[in-house]
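Why do we bother with holo predictions? Because pocket geometry can differ from the apo form. Keep that in mind while you read this record for S-adenosylmethionine.
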Amino acid sequence: MKQINNYIDSVFQNHNTHLEEVISSIEENGMPSISVSPSSGKLLTMLISISGAKNVLEIGALGGYSGICLTSGFGKEGKLTSLELEEKYAELANINLSKAGFGDQVSYLTGPALQSLEKLFEDNKRFDFFFIDADKENYENYLEYCIKLAESGAIIVADNVLARGSVADQEVKPKHYSELMKKFNETVANHPQLESILIPIGDGMTISKVKK
Ligand SMILES: C[S@@+](CC[C@H](N)C(=O)[O-])C[C@H]1O[C@@H](n2cnc3c(N)ncnc32)[C@H](O)[C@@H]1O
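The structure, written out:
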């Protein structure tokens, strides 16, 4: 899996000085290096531009790597709402998105994402694209909120669903989130309101279209 992803990353390069700056700023600030892979980021950009999504919700901002990939897909008319637990991370993500020219198109809601999602629902907000990339324990809860907040035909993408391949390959040492991801994938695959597929890019992404 690693070899294939390195090959994809090297051939379909996602070179962008803003993305490189995000990676450096994450290291400089002692934050974890857990941004999406370059190819996963490119897939996010392409999904947004292909779908024409303009109202995007991200769960898990970190330093803004995926935020830049998402906003790069929608040009000047789109809006990104990003949910992040850590105030300090959201601040860095905001700085990085501003440097990339998207500062006036992004807003951050800090605190536990479940609380922010409930508030967005109460405020009657709706979105046409979702990216789930935060605490794995809540993936199923995030999925249900995304469906509640979805416009008809919205797309929901979730990262890390292959748990480094351990969900499918018994020779790969299980990760702490392997069982969670197995269960999440079953839920996504069989959800009556979703039409879904899993793409083995980066750490694996499910892509779902909401049937409403
Ligand atoms: C894998 S990182 C996100 C990476 C980011 N999407 C990217 O690719 O640039 C996960 C993020 O989720 C945040 N997080 C963890 N638990 C959370 C929670 N309960 N609510 C909101 N954010 C949370 C972490 O602080 C971290 O920044």
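The radius of gyration is 16 Å.
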